[in-house]
Amino acid sequence: MPQLNPNPWFFIMLASWLTFSLIIQPKLLSFTYTNPPSNKASTTTKTTPWTWPWT
């Protein structure tokens, strides 16, 4: 069964993860967001209890 032979597939997986973590990921993390999050004051909403008609 060739699926169980890890010889070619392990190298492909290792090379792809190294490519992603060393080349692609730093390029993706260097982008600046177009809409950065701001520190807005959180507003508290007043909730009213639900009146059940059958109680």
UniProtKB/TrEMBL annotation:
<dbReference type="GO" id="GO:0015986">
    <property type="term" value="P:proton motive force-driven ATP synthesis"/>
</dbReference>
<keyword id="KW-0138">CF(0)</keyword>
<comment type="similarity">
    <text>Belongs to the ATPase protein 8 family.</text>
</comment>
<protein>
    <recommendedName>
        <fullName>ATP synthase complex subunit 8</fullName>
    </recommendedName>
</protein>
<dbReference type="InterPro" id="IPR050635">
    <property type="entry name" value="ATPase_protein_8"/>
</dbReference>
<dbReference type="GO" id="GO:0031966">
    <property type="term" value="C:mitochondrial membrane"/>
</dbReference>
<dbReference type="GO" id="GO:0045259">
    <property type="term" value="C:proton-transporting ATP synthase complex"/>
</dbReference>
<keyword id="KW-0375">Hydrogen ion transport</keyword>
<dbReference type="InterPro" id="IPR001421">
    <property type="entry name" value="ATP8_metazoa"/>
</dbReference>
<keyword id="KW-0472">Membrane</keyword>
<dbReference type="GO" id="GO:0015078">
    <property type="term" value="F:proton transmembrane transporter activity"/>
</dbReference>
<keyword id="KW-0813">Transport</keyword>
<keyword id="KW-0066">ATP synthesis</keyword>
<keyword id="KW-0406">Ion transport</keyword>
<feature type="transmembrane region" description="Helical">
    <location>
        <begin position="6"/>
        <end position="24"/>
    </location>
</feature>
<keyword id="KW-0812">Transmembrane</keyword>
<dbReference type="Pfam" id="PF00895">
    <property type="entry name" value="ATP-synt_8"/>
</dbReference>
<keyword id="KW-1133">Transmembrane helix</keyword>
<keyword id="KW-0496">Mitochondrion</keyword>
